[in-house]
Amino acid sequence: MNSSSEPSHSKGPAETDGGTIAACVILGLAFLIGAPGNLLVIWTILRYVKRGCHTVVLLLHLAAADLLILITLPLWIYSLLRTWVFGEIVCKLFVHIDIVCMFSSIFFITLMSVERFLAICHPFLMMRLKSERIMNGCLLFLWLLALLLGVPVFITQTLDKSDGDEQCFSREFTSTTQAITFLCLETLLGFVFPLITLSVCYCLVAVQLKKMSFKSKQMSKSLINAVVILFILCWLPYHIVNVIDVLCIQLSNTEHECVPKSLIFSTGALVFISSSVNPVLYAFFARSFRGGLGESYLVKLFQEVAANTHKLWEHALQQQPEGSKCADRADVELSAFKNVSVCSEATSLSFSTELKM
């Protein structure tokens, strides 16, 4: 994001040239693929998959955040081709939606890695935390935190009228201190700290899995890893531009642009693409469950994700150096936790009933 501009994913040239048309085509494809795809993911999870499986719940909220970003695309495309005719309030609102969904997406992905870390490295602690009430509380907190972190948009976002036509691409800061503060806040909380958390969790989980010598299907692990890697690859250039802008402001004590607009717009396109690739990713991983594309391939995929998470947790419990007291405690809490393992069976029964109807 440039210090004097709206977040890079909504930037574009004012005139309808070849680059603008190409960008609109890419954004249009992202909308046509991502919006129906995320809707299908949301509908499948809500209709067929038990929400007691927390990893699947996080994938549900991730799809919802991606969908919220994608539904703003038609207005951005129109603005790129024409001009912004929806007023400053709608401008602030739409940029706020994009920023909030950016934060919430990385928060949900980070929570997935933290949950996996607790399930494998601290299974007894996971017992106490693995409840629907706690998960709903975490989700509510993360959404509210994302909404709070998006508030600066209402302070700084403004319409750009420099080229005669109004565009929703500009931000105005009252000082270089304010610009640096907002840019650092977005980059640190929206990328750097979550990335550090992801890295630490994945490293510790990898070490623990080697000790456990646990063998199971790798599809669930590969799917979550792919979601994380794609998110990082799509958002890393965006935040690199943020860092360059901060350095530019700090060194020059001005708020002029230090990054070419073509590069800013390219990093912005990656952001929208990141919101549309997850359904394609799910379809790719689910193709082994069924030859054709239908609802069942997604249902079985999410069943496998839920079952694999539970198996890892259960195996981690068995690897703990516990005495008879801990063993009794594990047996009691394990029986209470069986609703997770029943998740796949209940989901399968639900889906089979729907097919017969």
The helix/strand series, from N terminus to C terminus, equals HHHHHHHEEHHHHHHH
Separate helix tally: 14
CATH class: Mainly Alpha
Q: Could you say what the CATH topology is called?
A: Rhopdopsin 7-helix transmembrane proteins
* Strand residue percentage: under 5%
> How many separate structural domains?
1
- In CATH, the homologous superfamily goes by the name Rhodopsin 7-helix transmembrane proteins
- By DSSP, the count of extended strands is 2
Unreliable spans are 1-15, 291-295, 323-357
Protein name: Si:dkey-148a17.5
Subcellular location: Cell membrane
Domain G-protein coupled receptors family 1 profile: 37-282
Main location: membrane
Question: How would you characterize the overall build of this protein?
Answer:
With 357 residues, the chain is mainly alpha-helical. The chain has one domain: Rhopdopsin 7-helix transmembrane proteins. The chain is 76% helix and 3% strand. It is built from 14 helices and 2 strands; from the N terminus they run H-H-H-H-H-H-H-E-E-H-H-H-H-H-H-H. It has a two-stranded antiparallel sheet. Helix 1 (18-48) packs antiparallel against helix 2, helix 11 crosses helix 12 (295-318) and helix 12 (295-318) packs antiparallel against helix 14. Mean pLDDT is 74; it is low at 1-15, 291-295 and 323-357.
